[in-house]
Amino acid sequence: MSDRANRAVTIWLFVVCILIVFMVSFGGLVRLTRSGLSIVEWNPISGVIPPSGEEAWQIEFSKYQQTPEFEKVNSEMTLDGYKRIFYLEWFHRLVARFVGLIVVIPLFYFLLKRYIPWRKSAVYLLIAIGFALQGFMGWYMVSSGLVDRPSVSHLRLTAHLLAALALLALSFWMALRHHYRFPEQEPKGIKTAGYRLSWLMVAVLTIQISYGGLVAGLKAGHASNTWPLMFGYLVPPGMLSVIQPWWRNLIETASTVHFMHRWFAFTVLIVAIALYFLAKKRDYSHAIHTGILLMIVLTLVQIGLGVSVIWLGVPIWLALLHQAVALGLFLLNFYLVYQFSHVIEAEPRPVVHSLQAGPV
Questions:
Q1: What's the pTM?
Q2: Cα dihedral sign for 122, 128, 132, 134?
């Protein structure tokens, strides 16, 4: 690939990453303002244009008035109030369409210009397909709040979030490959302990972000406004016995999910500190050492933001900042994984024992 082609693909992939981060963050705003259920139909084409005229607005409003959210939460909402939440969700969906075009149009241009060879196009096509599936998953999530409950399924919301993280990870990884232009053929050797620990960090951080999605879907952030105690206890009794079987409490009981999210954050911190001490003993690159230190600092900041969100009763701006830092940690973690992936320990040479004739 020529330098010009590589630069174009690199910029495209980084722009895609930025747009994914924006979409996830704006999705958080939509959720926190209870705007996500304001549009009760999925019209990929006609939905681009918002209602025009009083009659069209009244029709949309009447559809919303038939939803559980209006009946159980917003029954006193006026048409003007409805317009405010409608425009937030409409803009969210409009940006999603725009992002889809930013993914698809440059991709096919790169394929036609042979910037990306067809024989190596699978991963890029997977990114495009992933965006299409995200649109479907978004509607699948929204539809769960239009039948008999005034909110979307917390499990579908978390699945939607995890799919976005997978897309972000894949796009960011490919962006790094193009940016650093490492050889396609990886050097032979043994991956370091730092590489393995950085992947453990990915797993731990993904679990923590998943619990953040569950907290958001269950609105569990309001379960307790005290820290470190919950309901007067460090470990509230009966958290695993609210529903049966016991393990369902870990993903379905608001207070239990809240407890898990607030304390599992320290598992992330422990793994980051372990990575620091491991790297301290090795002659890793400056980028790795700096990245690990930044990971620890951001994790501490994130814990502080989480505690502040609890104490202050989940203010929207602080909750969005908390979410944005989580995405920053996720990207930084993958940056470290990528850096570690090119640190190879030499394979141990086999020991050859020779037989020497003894004295006769």
A1: 0.90
A2: positive
